Amino acid sequence: MNRLFLFFFVFFLSLLIEKLWIRKSCEMDMSQVQKDYGPQSHILTKSKTPSMGGLMFLAVSFLCLFLFPLSNAGTWHESFVFWIFPWGAALIGFIDDWIKYKKHSSEGLPSLGKLVAQILLALPWAFWVGWYKGIYLWPNMELSLWLGVPLLAFIAIGMLNAVNVTDGLDGLAAGSVILSLVAFLVWLPAATYVRSGGIVTLAMCLAFLWYNSHPAAVFMGDVGSHFLAGVLISLCALSGFLMAVIPLGFIFGVEILTVSIQLIAIHKFKRKVFKMSPLHHHFELTGWSEDQIVTRFLILHGLGAIVCIFFLMSWWA
Questions:
Q1: Fewest 10 Å CB contacts: which of 36, 45, 192, 247?
Q2: If 0-12 CB within 10 Å is exposed, 13-18 middle and 19+ buried, where does residue 3 land?
Q3: CB atoms within 10 A of CB 18
Q4: pLDDT (0 to 100) of residue 221
């Protein structure tokens, strides 16, 4: 199947499915309950916005599992290996979102329970990838299974949580993933089925951003953030360049790092480094508007990715 046709087919299909989901979720009052300890302005401005818009990613990508083999983009097994981790991650996110919805609460799965679920997903998948394709830190540097599997699982779990904490402002997570996908498609050579997965996800993200741009008509929820993080990990692992997670996940890494710094500072030193974490909330409380934060973070993500890519290329060369 022509990649341009695939891109536009997925884009318009995603627009339609997301529109239908927004309408249905409004009827079911599937709004996202804002955290009491988050920015108080969000309780006023975002409490009525429907969530779980990331279910669209699951629906469209599942359809693409059937499109890939028909377009010579890969075998059923190759496509399944690519999509199974994003799907499994999205399932964990969906359970978390569904508990929040049923309890009408901002708290879903317990943190420990979510972490255990992520480990149970990431370790078998990492072993599958290592056994089937091999785990390469960068091209031509294959890791042994005993080292590669836990490293891939650790990075995968970190990315799931990093994208999740970044998803706090309209368009921030989706926009950042779009930049990451463009960087991947322009920069990294990869098998056709891997590149097709990137193209499909790029089309879905652009369609989602159509509705998620400020002021958002829908939020992706944990189901969406987990899915997109899973795709980024699949792209890096199956393209044979695990270190590519550094530029592709630049802003997500910064966000999760600020959360870690804040937690350590509070628990060990009884003080805060930031007004609030993750970092985008800190700038909200300093007076930056939501549009300013999203735009500037996207610029930083793009610049950070470019710097990291040049660094990796010089190191790799």
A1: 36
A2: middle
A3: 26
A4: 92
